[in-house]
Design a protein that fits this description.
Distance between the termini: 66 Å
Structural class: mainly beta
Order of helices and strands: HEEEEEEEEEEEEEEHEHEHEEEEEEEHEH
Mean pLDDT: 88
Low-confidence stretches: 1-34
Number of helices: 6
Strand content: 25-35%
Number of strands: 24
Radius of gyration: 22 Å
Shape: globular
Helix content: under 10%
Length: 455
């Protein structure tokens, strides 16, 4: 049965500018929304976005330090589509193609993109500054011939090419452009414009800007299968009312962490049905294949303050505009506080560089409502803090929060990354000291257990 009949067609008018969002001239001109109800740049190709934490479009569990845009289009028969852009000042960038079910087809991470001019600033030890570090990629309408090893730094995939086939029902093609952690003061685009479409028709005519967008039909509705970006309230209600389970289910004390497998296993956090043979990292909502995730369900009925402690992987420093791209056990990692699988909203995230570490390289993150925040839950006291939403899961239980940790692009010699966890049962043994340990506490207990150093 065709996905179109199983899914829903979403016009997503709320995800676009209140204006046309069309560039007026030139291949590199950007157009911001006239009505800044939803802030951020958009144009005739990247009409949907930016996605990210509030006040941007907050859906599909975005990292609060990440911005991404969606392009929905149909390449005419015999035509050739290229995207031309400039490398952003950021920790990471990528292009990913998706099915209408929200499953990734192929990822083209930054290190697989060769520069047409200047250099690629994302290669280890590369200069991060410099004018006009430009690239171009080809968007192919065919299925990929080989499947790249996801989450890997191995440069064994096609360079400067992304396969983005249409679905079997003839629906549009969909790709997402992501920028992780733009340098300080450069958000959301990393101080460059959005990549621009260049369409070469079968006749040999080349189109840019609005003309290319018109030929690509970028204003057509997106086709999204049911469950691609969230589950329904009825499904969620069924999940949280499992028979013979306590009212705090599935939250445990201490917490139980789950790797991301397929959708059945994601919902299996509630049902107990975990598919150990599923391909990892595809069970979320438009996941980034270069990330691997663990998550847990938190319920403040166990205690108003949730504490997470683990050893922190090393990452390159970029946020303060460092001149060269460094090395690290991971390219990026973060910890996030989220709401339910229904609204898939992020409350906030902490990225690696902003989390204080103790002399042994361990971090401690405190997660609570603002009203329960310990007075010492601040970086100068050695603690980081994340908020719980006042309405909890945003649907039925004001005490529920989802906490998620992501690891991106582990180094070949880093044996403790989430990427290395093949099965749920192996999680603790693989992560070792990087495995998060948790505890529920009272606010005054945190203040007593973690004295803030004198100034």
């Amino acid at each position: 049965m065709a996905l179109r009949s199983l899914g829903i067609v979403i016009a997503l008018t709320a995800l676009t500018s209140c204006s046309d969002g069309q560039a007026s001239s030139g291949p590199v001109q950007q157009v911001s929304a006239i009505d800044e109800t939803i802030p951020g740049p958009r144009d005739c190709f990247w009409r949907r976005g930016p996605f990210g934490a509030d006040p941007y479009i907050n859906i599909a569990y975005p990292d609060a330090n990440v911005f991404y845009w969606a392009g929905v289009f149909s390449v005419p028969e015999g035509a050739r589509l290229q995207l031309e852009g400039e490398f952003p000042a950021s920790r990471y960038m990528s292009f990913v193609s998706y099915t209408t079910a929200g499953h990734p087809i192929e990822s083209l991470p930054d290190f697989l993109i060769n520069a047409d001019q200047g250099n690629n600033p994302f290669i280890e030890d590369a200069a991060r500054s410099g004018d006009m570090n430009q690239y171009s990629i080809e968007v192919r309408s065919s299925e990929p011939e080989t499947v790249r090893d996801i989450g890997s730094r191995e440069a064994n995939g096609p360079t400067n090419a992304l396969h983005a086939p249409a679905d079997e029902a003839g629906g549009p093609q969909t790709i997402l452009y992501r920028i992780y952690l733009p340098d300080d003061g450069t958000a959301p685009t990393g101080d460059v414009g959005l990549p621009q479409p260049v369409l070469t028709l079968a006749s040999g005519e080349t189109l840019h800007g609005p003309e290319a967008c018109q030929a690509l039909r970028t204003r057509q509705p997106a086709v999204m299968a049911s469950g691609a970006a969230s589950i329904t309230p009825a499904q969620y209600r069924a999940l949280i009312t499992q028979p013979n389970r306590p009212d705090t289910w599935p939250a445990q004390s201490p917490a139980e962490w789950f790797i991301q497998l397929d959708r059945e296993s994601l919902l299996g956090i509630y049902t107990g049905q975990i598919n150990e043979d599923a391909r990892r990292s595809e069970g979320g909502f438009y996941p980034n294949p270069d990330n691997f995730y663990i998550r847990t369900i938190v319920n403040r009925k166990h205690g108003p303050v949730f504490l997470v402690r683990a050893k922190a992987p090393t990452t390159p420093a970029t946020f303060n505009g460092e001149t060269r791209m460094g090395e690290g056990q991971l390219r990026y990692w973060s910890i996030c506080s989220n709401q339910s699988f229904v609204n898939t909203r992020v409350n906030d995230c902490l990225f690696d560089e902003e989390i204080p570490l103790d002399p042994r390289g361990f971090f401690t993150v405190v997660i609570s409502r603002e009203e329960d925040r310990p007075r010492n839950a601040r970086p100068e006291c050695g603690l980081s803090w994340l908020p719980m939403a006042d309405d909890g899961d945003g649907m039925f239980d004001e005490d529920v929060t989802i906490v998620q940790i992501r690891h991106m692009l582990g180094a070949d010699d880093f044996a403790n990354s989430i990427e290395r966890v093949e099965r749920q049962d192996d999680l603790e043994s693989v992560l070792g000291p990087y495995m998060p340990r948790t505890q529920y506490l009272q606010t005054n207990q945190v203040e007593a257990l973690f004295p803030c150093p004198a100034p």
